[in-house]
């Protein structure tokens, strides 16, 4: 196993955990997710909240199964890129909030790049 490949199991576990937890939250508490759906998107925000929740749960499942792990990595990359506009919307919405909340919102923007790097690592190394 190459040194890069040896990190894939930890990265996979982290992504599965993150995506599964976030996916569940989209159904348990949808309102915060609704609030960051960019208003330019057509249709109700709740559709996007539930749709992204399904996508997160499905992607977590793909990553959890060794046979579909690389496909899961590719799906995670696509998902993280697709939801980036919601993170931008959150930063915009929270621009006048207290500094702690602004730090959270702005901190999510570069974190998305870290998530993409992790999902690409899993896609390449399974």
TrEMBL record:
Sorted alphabetically, the Gene Ontology BP terms of this entry are:
methylamine metabolic process
Q: How does it sit in the membrane?
A: Multi-pass membrane protein
Q: Where in the cell is it found?
A: Membrane
Q: Which GO terms describe its cellular component?
A: membrane
Which residues does the UniProt record annotate as the domain Methylamine utilisation protein MauE? 12-84
Give a yes or no for keyword Hydrolase in this entry: no
Keywords assigned by UniProt?
A: Membrane, Transmembrane, Transmembrane helix
Q: What is this protein called?
A: Methylamine utilisation protein MauE domain-containing protein
